Amino acid sequence: MVVGARHARTPGGVVDSDVTDSEGTPPGRPQGPVPGASPTGAGLTRRRRRWLRYTAIGVAVVVLGAGVAGWVVYEKLNGNITADDDAAAELARYEKERPTALVHGAQNILMIGSDSRSGAGNKKYGRDSGTERSDTTILLHLAADRRSATAMSLPRDLMVDVPGCRRPDGTRTEPMFAMFNYAFQVGGSACTIRTVEKLTNIRVDHHMVVDFHGFKDMVDAVDGVEVCLKKPIDDKAAKLRLPAGKVVLDGEQALGYVRARKTIGDGSDTDRMDRQQRFLGALVNKVRSNDVLLNPAKLYPVLDAATSSLTTDPGLASLRGLYDLVRGMRNIPTQSVQFLTVPRTAYALNANRDQLVEPEATQLFERLRTDQPVTVTKESAEKASEGPPPHSATPYENSLSRHLAQSNSDGRSMLLLPGALTGTPDPAPTFRGNTAAEDACG
Description:
Oligomer: single chain
Shape: globular
Distance between the termini: 100 Å
Largest sheet: 8 strands, mixed
Number of helices: 11
Mean pLDDT: 77
Radius of gyration: 34 Å
Strand content: 15-25%
Order of helices and strands: HEHEEEEEHEHEEEEHHHHEHEEEHHE
Structural class: alpha+beta
Helix content: 25-40%
Low-confidence stretches: 1-25, 34-38, 122-130, 380-389, 410-428
């Protein structure tokens, strides 16, 4: 009996291919292989199609797996970053008093190194008093054309006007003339930003805060950073003991090296800032080397360390935000990545504190604010044979003059700033520093 047949035979007597018997074989067609059949027939075609299908599925699984792994890595790194929403809200309260950005495309990022002992592994560096101070503060200026970057260190002992700020408990402080790092202690990053903007008249576009742990991990992630020591170091306070000559510092040693003060160099905070700048230049060189950037196995730990223990403004609090920032910096030549310290001298009433040297400091601030080139030299330039013409006292000079006058009320002799307050010619502007291209042992 024939089943499922539309018709049995064609008019020419040939069995129709659509007609099958109960066994699924067209009537009149021989069972098994047809004698003389080609090896490239339907069977091989089906096997090829099956192979292609399985291959496509395999590739899809691999791509999906890579995509999932990439997503997991992205979310891990993205989740490392903490958004500083409180600072953003506080700065918004004072938007009207903040400086205006003058050059489109130029960026100013305030980088704050916190000495907080509350983070993981940080308690061994001292007692946690419940507050934190800015151990290191650097204002990084990126030129609008992204052909240069200037990192300006601000001494933590610099005497400045700190505005009234919101404390963590919600109460507010009174405006005060105090050491610069007092701002971070009482009001965190928002207070520090407002203090910097009041001092320099430069708009701070972004900020980031990193603690001891993040710094150490970054150095370890690049397998250490080489420095050159003129003398051996034995600093019990910094838990640092190193021989003279070329030394590759791991994260723990690097932290002690950049924080040590009294046992290295002349013991001044200025000397320590110079040392920090040279170290950061060496770190930039190490991170930008192909050995790190082109090696995923090394790049991930660097990214993980760079994002861990990092608190930023909401605009930078994502990998996309940080990538957009770093992307603009990747082509800056190392010789155009410059580090310097704001022109400063010992404070007139306390040699252990600092004050700005004017008009050099104001000239530096103005060059950064208007995105003009800045040149650094290893040593201060010699005083010009003829000083610049007299200038009007800067707001900082006026503020400092008032505090000096108040301090003079007990009959002590008045000590004045170099420059405008004394009525004598000012020295030529000098920006002492170094570039990332300089050999740490050169």
